[in-house]
Amino acid sequence: MAEAEEAGVPAGDEQQQQQHQQPSSSSDPEDSQPAAPTPDTKERAAEDREAPSQLGAFSDQLSPDKFKMKKFFVLRPGTLNQAIKDVEALVDKEVDGNVLSVWLMAEVDHWNNEKERLALITDNSLLVFKYDFVMFNCEQIQRIPLNFVDRITHGTFSFPKRSVLQREGEGVRVFWDRLREPSFTSKWNPFATDLPFITFTSHPVKSISDSFADLCDIQNFREKLKDASQKAHTMKPVPGKANGVLVLNQPILIEAYVGLMSFFGNQNKLGYCMARGNIGF
Fold first, then answer.
1. Beta strand 151-158 with 137-145: parallel, antiparallel or unpaired?
2. pLDDT per residue over 6-50, tens digit each?
3. How far apart are CA 13 and CA 23, in angstroms?
4. How far apart are CA 165 and CA 38, in angstroms?
5. pTM for this model (two decimals)
6. How many Cβ atoms sit within 10 Å of the Cβ of residue 183?
């Protein structure tokens, strides 16, 4: 007892400290073992395993081609409906009659440049609109009387033998004055608008959905245009002009040879309203 008191620690307290130290030492191995998984940790693990598969499915849906298609402003929700409403408001009922069908096309000019166009077939006219899908504004209207349409050709595109240009797909060319041939200056002027024909091909977004496939169907457009033109010839014949429309399946000739401007423009889709990203630094 004297020795314990000299050490400054009571004997009873010393025994209590030893008892408290024993459980703590015995609990060390238990602390080193991993804790049992809880329901929350199991759910997180399951989500982590599912995340890569979901990402893979999402990446498969957004293929590079479809991702590029999304850049066309005509695909933005409500854009096409507003554009159709705007161009239909420009139809002159007295001159054009009722609207029979609406089409989303690409015009190919005599220098092989592609241009985005909305086309309306009415009772009396073929209306071709240059429409700005960004600003919702019609910039140009071309009116072609259907009773003047005398020839429609359809087929693949062809170029002169020494031309370095080429174009895939099929097109439709509409003639309304077979007796007038384009002049030499008009052929070599890329901005000429006095040519007696117009050429169409399918819009690039035709494969995005079934509704756009119908809207851009070049073959159906040709049939509807032929039927409307035949009817217009019957209802309003032109004096001194043969009535009826001649439909020919033959290559559509584009008399362009080098066409650096068209090559650059078509590759970058400069004739379409598209999102082209930020420009700057």
1. unpaired
2. 444 444 444 444 444 444 444 444 444 445 555 555 555 444 444
3. 17
4. 67
5. 0.73
6. 12
